Amino acid sequence: MMAGDVAMLPLESEFVDTSTLATPTSDWSMNPIGDLEFAGGGEAFEVELTASGNIESEDLIFSASIVPSLAQELDSQYDLTESDDYHTNCLGQNNRWIRSDSAGWFYLTPEGEFFRWRGSFDRSLHLGSFDTSYYDNPDLLTDPESPDVDVVVEGDILRIMPSAEFTGSFQIEVGATDGVQRGPTDLVLVTVTEPIDDFKTPPADEDDPVEDETPPPVLMVIANQDFYYQEYADTRASLEAAGLEVVVAATTTETATPHANSGQGDGSGHVTPDLALSDANADDYSAIVFVGGWGAASYQYAFEGTYSNGSYNSTEELKSTVNDLINDFVDQDKYVSAICHGVSVLAWARVDGVSPISGKTVSAWANTSPGSDTAFHTTRQEIEYNGGSMVQSGSIGDPTTATDDVIVDGRIITAENYDSAAMFGQVLGDAINDPAYIDEVFAEWE
């Protein structure tokens, strides 16, 4: 490192990696929040802050602040200068060049890699990675904008208040102190999405089909313990790309933990459900989705065995709540869908005494299911026992891959596994947005 370089750099990405809390040095610790995502429009978003250990949350003083982005850190450190054309392709390689009066020259590659020039490309110092929008508009580096968001803590409530026009991502650092010792902090990635207008039915005297209306949200059900992260994330991303809002429900609103190595990458993959299943009402949603992972077994209404993993054994009350919810979606002729082991929830449901997939063709994970004291050792066995017909893996579309293994059979939509999740969300989103579906189902709702 040459004289004048600062040891805090290079940073690796636009945001510092979101991580779980460090090992506490006292007999209490703040509970991690997990990443947050909510629709903008000017409404405040609130999160309750809690702690574990030998202390009550009300005895702590919580604090929160917005963490500067990598672009802000770099501009603050080097005072990067705006330019009309950023000297594109100077010295070849199609890079864009940025000047600093105090630190010389920097360059940004078409792929978004940012370097400090050291006299040659081989000796240049890598300072960070950005998406290609920064290459298209280097002003994002030379004049980075702070998020138009207020973050305050009142007691144990974290309140995030974006302006009505703001959308985007930023990080906040949340900490706590008992008045003597400050505990470890939590870095939280916050994403504010475009606001979604509430669905409105047409006036009673209109005979034309509903057009250009946004259907109600999709209800996505995950398990509080051992849901499959990629099946959740890829499905949700496709639904949101189709313009649909997604509301996440689980047994409780406590942080949901995915299977290890289920697509969450280096992050925890923790998800904070929007509501408990007991508070969900089919009237409020356009479809229901059951995400896979062994934890989905806790929602199997008619399953009478006991699982070896105690977290998969739930109460009769919870099973009845889920079954009643499925019945309500079926009664309203709305899409009932599931992916991977989530299809077993539909298999063990009962509508008028039979499984909603009885007589239906479905796709699902064909192999093992969580260990129990029953004769059911695969998801296929559970599906076929309950009257469903399950296709072979890869048999839909391209036989060399499961990415397109999605089946629509009436109002039942199923998919094989995480490989199929992106297509699953796309197919479901297209089905919900179909004007015929909107006209048949949504226009009847008050």
UniProtKB/TrEMBL annotation:
GO terms for cellular component: cytoplasm. InterPro entries: Class_I_gatase-like, Prot/Nucl_acid_deglycase. Gene3D superfamilies: 3.40.50.880. This is DJ-1/PfpI domain-containing protein.
